[in-house]
Here is the input.
Amino acid sequence: MLAMNYRGPYRVRADEKPMPQILHPEDAIIRVTRSCICGSDLHLYHGMVPDTRVGMTFGHEFCGIVEQVGPAIQNLKVGDHVLVPFNIACGKCHFCQQGLFGNCHESNAQATAVGGIYGYSHTAGGYDGGQAQYVRVPYADVGPTVIPDWMDPDDAVLLTDVVPTGYQAAEMGAIKPGDTVVVFGAGPVGLMAARSAWLFGAGRVIVIDCEEYRLEFARTFGPAEVYNFREIDDVVVFLKKQTDSLGADVCIDAVGGDASGNALQWFFGTKLKLEAGNAIALHWAINSVKKGGVVSMVGVYGPTGNMVPIGNVVNKGITIRANQASVKRLLPRLIEHIRAGHINPKAMITHRVPLADVADAYHIFAAKLDGCIKPVLLPNGA
Amino acid sequence: MAQALVDTSTIPGWGVDTDPKNNPTYPMRHIEDQKTRGLTWHRPPLQEPQVEVLQSIEHNRLPAVVGTSTPPSGLSGAIRRYAFRRSESDWWHWLLLMGADRINVVEGVIEDLAAGKVPNVPAEMGAKSEWQHNKNGFLLKAGATLAIGAVLVAIVQARREDRADEDEGETIAAEPAHVTARVDEPVLPADLATSQVVPLPGLDA
Here is the structure.
C-alpha cells in the first residue's frame, strides 16, 4: 500500500509499505478515504517532537471504510464508513472512565504523560497513522464512530481532531456569557476555538495571528475581531487597551510550539530545540488574561521545557486548563452542532491532495503557501 | 485599528452551550465510580508485541495495546534504549531521544542507498510546490544553496591545493636529510674506523 514516509525534518515522501495487520482482538483495519494534515503534524515535520523515527507514517485525522475487524469487535462491521478520533483509548481505564479519552493509560508504552495517538511519534505510542491507504485502528469498538448518512465526509474527517480540539479549548475556558475571549492562532484549531467561544456565550472574540489571509478568513468564519501582531508594538499592551486595562476573561493558546513572534524563543526553541518549541503564544496568553482569568491551552508543545512567565500565573491567580481533546466525549454534541448548522467545519478545507504528493502538501501547509488553511489527503482517490 | 464588535444576535447557536456549572475542575473531578481508582480496572486483552517496544519506566506494566511502527535499530536504537533507562521527568531522556532522531536521519539515508535508492531530497522537501507558489522564495533558496555549495567547494579545493603545496614542500625539505643519511651510511663508527686488524692466532699464512 501507499503511505506517507517520514525521512527527517522537512523531508517526507509517499512510499510502498506493508499492509497493516490485526494484532489485537479489538483491532480493525480501515481503508482511508480522507486524511488531513494537522497543524500539530508540523511539529513532527519540523523535528520538534522527541522519538520521531525515520520510516514512520504520520496522520491522526482520518476517516475511512472498515476493511477488516478483530474477533472481539461488536460495534463495527466491514463496510462501515467511520470517523476515527485521534485518541487511541481503551474505554476502561481510570482516565477513560472519566471521559479523559486523550489520557488513556492502556495505549502508550513509551510515555505516561499522553495517551496513544495515531502517527504521532513514539512519544505518543509508536502507531503508524492514517496518511496511508490503510491503517490499523486499536480499540476499534471505542473510538471509531459511524458517519451519519446525512453528514458530509469532509465534515466528518474534521470531527476527528480539529473541531473537538477547538471546541474543548472554548469549553476549558469556562466562558461565561459576555466574556471577552482572545484566541492566539488563526489556524484551523484557532478558528474552531473562536467559533465555539460564541456557542459558550462569549460577548467578544478576538483572534491574533500574523498571516493576513488567515485573519481575513477568521474575520468571517469566527466571526471575530482580528489583529495582526506584526502590526502591533506590544500584543499584551494592545489587548489590555482593548479591555479597559483589565485583560481578557479567557485566553486560548491555539498555536503551540511552532509559533512566530519572538526571535529569542524562535532561535532557542524552534531552531536549536533547546526548548519544546516557541512558547510566545502561551507567554502572551498568561500576560494578557485578566487576574483570576482562565488560560486554555490546546497548542501542542514537546515534552521538555519552555520559557514562560510562570510567576505571573501565581501573581495573577490564573487558572490554566489544558489537554488533548477528548474526542469521543465531545462527538455527540458536535454532531448535533453540525446538523443544526451552528458550525460548518468543511469551509476550512482549502486543498485536496493525492497521497502521492504528500511532500508538497506538507510544504504548502508548513510554509503557508497558496492561502492554505487545511489540506486533506486522498489516499484512495477522490 | 479598532474594529466593530460582532453582534452576537447574528451568530447561529450563540450561547447554546453556556453552562454555569462548567468549572475549571471538569472533567478532572468527574469521578462517580470510586472503583476505578488505582490499577483496578478490567483490562482489555493484552497484545503480544512481535517487535521490540521500549517502555517508560514510569509504567509498571506494558499497556494492553502497543504501537509497532519502526522498532529501534542501529546506533539510534541503542541510544533510544539507553534513554529509556531514564524517566520522562529527566531532561536527558528527551535530549538523548532528540539526538537519536538526528542520527536516525543519517541512518535513513544509508538505508535508502543500501536499497539502491538515492533520496530525492528536493522533492521530499516540497520543491515542486515551492516553485509553483513561491518562485521568489524558490530562487532565493536555490541561489543560497548554490552559493553555500560553491563556497564549500572553493574551501575544499583551496585546502586540497594548500595540502598539495605543503606535501611538495615537505618532499623538497626532506631530501637533504635523506641524502645525508645515505652519505652517513657507509661511515663506520669511530672505534671501528680506527681499529687495527688483529690477526687471529693460527691463521697466519
About this structure: The first helix of chain B runs from residue 74 to 83. Residues 177-189, 191-205 of chain B have pLDDT under 50 and may be disordered. Residues 121-172 of chain B form one domain. The two ends of chain B are 127 Å apart (CA to CA).
